Fold these 2 entries.
Entry 1:
Amino acid sequence: MEYDCGFNTKLLHGKTSKGFPNREILPPISQVTAFRYDSMEELERVFLHKSMGYAYSRIGNPTITAFEQRIQELEGGAGAVCCSSGMSAITAALLSICESGDEIIAGNCLYGGTIGLFHDLEKWGIHIVSVKDLTEETVKPLINAHTKAIFGELISNPSLKVMNVPSISRLAHEAGIPLIVDSTTATPFIARPLELGADIVIHSTSKYLNGGGNSIGGVIVDGGTFRWNFEKHTALREFKKFGKLALSVRLRTDTWENLGGCMAPMNAFLSYIGTDTLGLRMQRICENADRLAHALDQMKGIQVSYLTLPSHPCYEEAKDILDGYGGGILSFRAGSKERAFRIINSLKYACIASNIGDVRTLVIHPASTLYIQASKEEMQAAGVYEDTVRVSVGIESADDLIADFTEAINNSREGKEDENYSFR
Ligand SMILES: *Cc1c(COP(=O)(O)O)cnc(C)c1O
């Protein structure tokens, strides 16, 4: 793990962290619904996009703009829109590119909410072709004339499958299809999917970007480099004159605006100040997770899954694509649901919560919560078993976390048989 390579400097002093109207160090909170104009002519010019200006906060707001520009700069994109949630971002992105009759190839052990959205999209005539692992071999045979996008998560959770973005994007581009990457669990600190070849990046800012667990939000970053074929991508035909920026313009002036999933100005502010420490937090979180995973891996009677453990199936991909960082999520199997509950209940420093990406360590039993609606097959495909414990590692002292988990696991043993759990 190299030190941050200038990430924090660029983040704090990048061009989008300057230029606020009264030289504020942070973007002022424009907690308003609408903006007042001196003349009707001026407001008309704003509506005609002939002059820059804000009219109504669902369509644009300076605090939200500041956060959008910061994430756009971090990801290296050409345009960004903030959304009310990560789900709202995924919805707006997919509905901007696809229309009834189109297909999306999607996979890599997706977030439960995304799987739920896909059931809705099916009802609206957009067909989802699901694959368990998004690889060149699995995706290639599924591409046809109706395929309009490939969607996947860079690091899935809790199974921690790492998408090989360079190879999938190459395949996608050969077929004239954009690759959309949900990079929520990776964050731009660990990997920048646009640099790896993806065309659109999505985040739930509710997680690591905000980091403080204080607001729901999402963002879509358009790389602005995909060559849309407007005969194929008919959903964007009206935006043909904008060329490579067709998606950004459609989002901004059409789908995103009309769907109404804007971010709240206060949430944009809270998320903006949250990202100030993104590099520091991610560095610490990854180090903590790595140390905790290696410590737990020494213990008998549990089975640990984390990307920097050589036993993990995506260990090599993580080295290649994630610069050796493993991210903030690890999981372990405890042998039984009862033992998983006992461990979770006796942890001192981990909060029992369904979120990820907080500064505090969070822990949950996914099978009885996040996957309560899922079938056994869906659960297994997502790498979730009856005895899986998911940990979203925080920034506490690693020694304290290791001591806490070690004690909870040791105290949860009921007898010698615990040493001989089989994990099938
Ligand atoms: C949380 C999450 C989402 C959804 O984001 P919300 O802000 O909760 O709507 C989407 N994708 C991933 C990978 C997530 O972790």
Entry 2:
Amino acid sequence: MFFVGDLDNAGVNRSPSAYLFNPPDERARYPRDVDTLMILLKFVDATSQKSIGAFTWFATHGTSMSKDNTLVSGDNKGAAARFFEDWFTSTSTNSTTFNTQDDISVLINKASEIKATGGQPCGQTSSQGFKVRKNDGGSRFVGAFCQSNVGDVSPNVLGAFCIDTGLPCDFNHSSCNGNDQLCIGRGPGYPDEIKSTKIIGERQFHKAVELFTSAKEQLTGKIDYRHVYLNFTNIKVTLAGNKTAKTCPAALGPGFAAGTTDGPGAFGFQQGDTKINEFWKRVRDFLKKPSDYQVDCQKPKPVLLSTGEMFFPYAWAPAIVPIQILRIGKLVILSVPGEFTTMSGRRLRESVKQTLITNGNGEFDNDTHVVIAGLTNTYSQYIATPEEYKQQRYEGASTLYGPHTLSAYIQEFNKLAESMAKGRKIVPKGPSPPDLSSVQLKLLPDPSGDSPPPGVKFGNMKHDVSIPKSGSFQKGDKPSAVFWSPNPRYDLLTEGTYAVVEMLQGEKWIPAYDDDDFSLFFKWNIDNGSSYGLASLEWEVPDSASNGVYRFRHFGSSKKTIGSTTEYFTGASSAFAVS
Ligand SMILES: *[C@@H]1O[C@H](CO)[C@@H](O)[C@H](O)[C@H]1NC(C)=O
Ligand SMILES: *[C@@H]1O[C@H](CO)[C@@H](O)[C@H](O)[C@H]1NC(C)=O
Ligand SMILES: *[C@@H]1O[C@H](CO)[C@@H](O)[C@H](O)[C@H]1NC(C)=O
Ligand SMILES: *[C@@H]1O[C@H](CO)[C@@H](O)[C@H](O)[C@H]1NC(C)=O
Ligand SMILES: *[C@@H]1O[C@H](CO)[C@@H](O)[C@H](O)[C@H]1NC(C)=O
């Protein structure tokens, strides 16, 4: 089943000056410079009639967390997915709420008797048993928050401001007196970016719930697909008026190096730069002097990095990229290997829809929904319209295959759409992309071996939970505990968890929050005094937490030296009361 609706406060255009380069009559057809449509596809088990999942597509960048964040995070899409899956699980079972009616003083007394366990050995997969939401068939509901034509859409919806003056940045360059590093986008939780992530996640989650509960219309009709690989470095494109042009080998302009208001770049570049100074030209030519053909082909982009002409130790940019159309009845999904800007996405969707209607013999009509699935199958950076390309902001400067990149996508997608509409089966599969998986460079060395300080075991406490004067924590408080802990990269504990908040139920400890939960933070640091590793677990007691007795549990793994076997451990803090 599927349903569509509008979500108007989860994205803004971060390159509005480039959007204004698009023709006025085209812009006049749309209320805003970003798409607000969210499309939801709901999956229902045919036998049991139970919902088993939902996909949504909505265009907004996962950049609520800035580049200063060092925690592993799914950003606003990940937050929305977790909120949605938790919502579905709690509305469908009702059994996950803990109801402890005990008197507060009883809780405080009980908590004070339970001390930290100290570090103990455990199995490689032990932590998987402590996941709150396991992938073991219990609650299998999947809430996926997919990307769409996100190229110029920022979740930092309050706009971009200069951090020195607080004034809006330069409109055309997103800089402050020529310095792009001072111009930063603000999320709705500004200055708290974790709060911004949560709010943008919640907005997508709330809209998804609304669409999910309204989705009654069953998708019927054909299931079909077309897929092809294309060498995008020299596609011949037929433009309006029968003129022809070509795409180019990949290249990046200086606007790419400038970054965006979601994360500025470095070295003094600005978005919208159409010139490169002599110094950077010399640096560029040292790496790879772009060919005359490339310089001409990419105009008006000045070539800063001719990645399509750089092959050491392997190609710096993809040449062969896949495009794909999937059809479920009247829903048509376009899988694009990059980030289409808002207007690029509109042009592609509308053109493909027209091609389907024209060639479909009544099978497609105005009711056909075309959705762009962004950043799929491979990644080839951005796709701006030829008009936006003229301004060479970040998105235009990152449009790899030259000014006619979008026109080439539209042309090639229309070939697939025509084949699908006419029911022609086979499209040639195209050239195969090279498999580089065995030659990938890895710049991050493995951890070199870890031991705890003398007389201590990994999983022992460095700082146990410090109990407030009142004896218990309240909603919104942040209890924390610090464990001696090796580098977490020995084993990423996939399908498991580094951190758990457990709740005492009778005589048993039950996991209540894990490290995938928005309220629980797992931070690893080197102890400044001793240079041994420390894991800090911090829990922001959520409003929904029940009164009760809780404790922290930590999982980790270590190797004594690079060659030795991996050892696994766990440890729990002292207990504390929440009232
Ligand atoms: C931005 O650039 C355009 C030309 O591309 C110019 O017309 C406009 O005045 C500039 N706006 C500002 C605020 O500088
Ligand atoms: C793509 O096409 C170009 C131009 O025809 C060719 O030189 C290049 O080798 C092709 N790339 C790959 C990866 O096949
Ligand atoms: C474009 O070229 C094709 C074939 O070369 C021709 O059939 C068509 O009439 C031309 N269209 C225009 C608008 O010139
Ligand atoms: C096609 O559908 C759109 C909305 O999806 C609507 O605005 C438009 O009027 C429809 N056009 C026709 C010709 O029915
Ligand atoms: C070590 O010192 C830095 C800088 O003072 C501080 O930010 C960091 O939190 C400290 N690490 C630990 C584990 O205390």
